Amino acid sequence: MLETWLTRELGITIPLVGAPMGGRAGGSLAGEVTRAGGLGLIGAARYNTAEWLEEQARSAREIGGGHLGFGLMTWSLDDDDSLLGAVLAHHPQVVTLSFGDPAPYVKRVHAAGAVVISQINTLEDLRVVEAAGVDAVVAQGHEAGGHTGRIGTLPLLQEVLESTELPVLAAGGIASGRGLAAVVAAGGVGALVGTALLASPETVGPDYARERLLAAGSADTVYTDVFDKARHQPWPARWCGRALVNSFTETWHGRGADEQTLADEYTADDPDIGVVYAGEAAGLVRSQRPAGDVIRDIGAQAEQLLGRFH
Question: What InterPro entries is this protein classified in (predicted)?
C-alpha cells in the first residue's frame, strides 16, 4: 500500500483524489472514487443549489461511506459565499478552495473540521495560499482539463516541491499508475485525477461527452476561453479552460468574438458544439470503465512500479 501524508491525513488507502469537476463530478462519481480507496470530490459550481448539494452528498456517503469532500471556485465566493455555507452544512472531510485567494474562508472551513487544499498554478499562487493557512496544495499544470494555468505539470511540480514545506499533490496529465508513481517518486503526496474518470458511467453530463473523449487523442485539446464567453461564465481572464476541440473551437477560438456572438452560436446539446472539458491525458482513456476500477488500477500500478526500487 502506498502511504503518504494524504493517505494518513484522510484515512484513505490510495493517494488519489477525484477532481471536483463542475458539471461532471457529482455524488455517484465521488462515492465510487472513495469506495475504491481514494477520495472523491463533488464539484460545487456557482450555479448549484443547496438542494442539489444535499442530494449529491447523500449519494456520495451512501456509496463511499463517511468520507466526503467538495471543491469550490474561490473567485465566485467573493461575490456570494452562501455556497460555502451549504457545503459546510454537510460536514465534509475536505474542501478545496482554488482559483483565487482562500484567506477569507480558510478559518471557516477549519472551524467545521475540514482539511483545506488549494490548487495553484504559479509560485505566486503558492505564496498566497500559504499565507492563507491551507493544509496542502495541488500543483495543477497546463495539461489539466478544465480551467487551469499556463505552466506544465512537471516544471510546476518541481518548483512547488522545492519552495514549500506544505504537502504537495499534482494534477494535470495524470491518468495511469505511471503518472501517480512519478509524482510520489518526486516527493509529492498524491494526485488529483479528472480526465481519467470522464468516460466512467458515474459522471454527470451528456452521453456524447464520453463518446467524444474516447475518440480523442492527447493532441485533440485546446486551451480557450470561448466556452466561458458563450455561456456567460465570468471566469477571471487569467484562467482559460482546456477542452476537446470541436467545430465551435475551430470556428471561434482566437477570433476575438464578443460574448453575445458566441452565445448566439453555442448549443450545449450539439456534440459538435457543446463543451467537453478534458485534459491532455485524453489519449490514455480508451473505454467506459467504472470509476472504482480506474482508481484501483492506477493505485495498483503505481505501487508495483515504486516497489521495484525497494
Answer: Aldolase_TIM, NMO
∠ CA 252-214-283, nearest 5°, is 85
Q: What is the mean pLDDT of the chain?
A: 97
Amino acid at 15: P
pLDDT at 310: 64
* Separation CA 113–CA 271 (nearest Å): 42
- In DSSP notation, 31-65 reads HHHHHTTSEEEEEE-TT--HHHHHHHHHHHHHHH-
**Degrees to nearest 5, angle at CA 218 with 217 and 222:** 105
**For cell 512500479, what's the residue?**
305
> Each residue of 179-199: pLDDT tens digit?
999 999 999 999 999 999 999
H or E segment at 8? Answer: helix 5-10
pLDDT digits (tens, 9 = 90+) for 224-256: 999 999 999 999 999 999 999 999 999 999 999
Q: Which of 45, 110, 27 is nearest to 83 (CA)?
A: 45
Neighbours of 206 (CB within 10 A): 16
Cell of 216: 480523442
C-alpha cell at 29: 462519481
Q: Of 112, 47, 40, 37, which Cα lies nearest the Cα of 69?
A: 40
pTM: 0.96
Report all structural domains of the chain as residue ranges with CATH numbers, in order of start: 5-204+287-307 (3.20.20.70), 207-265 (no CATH)
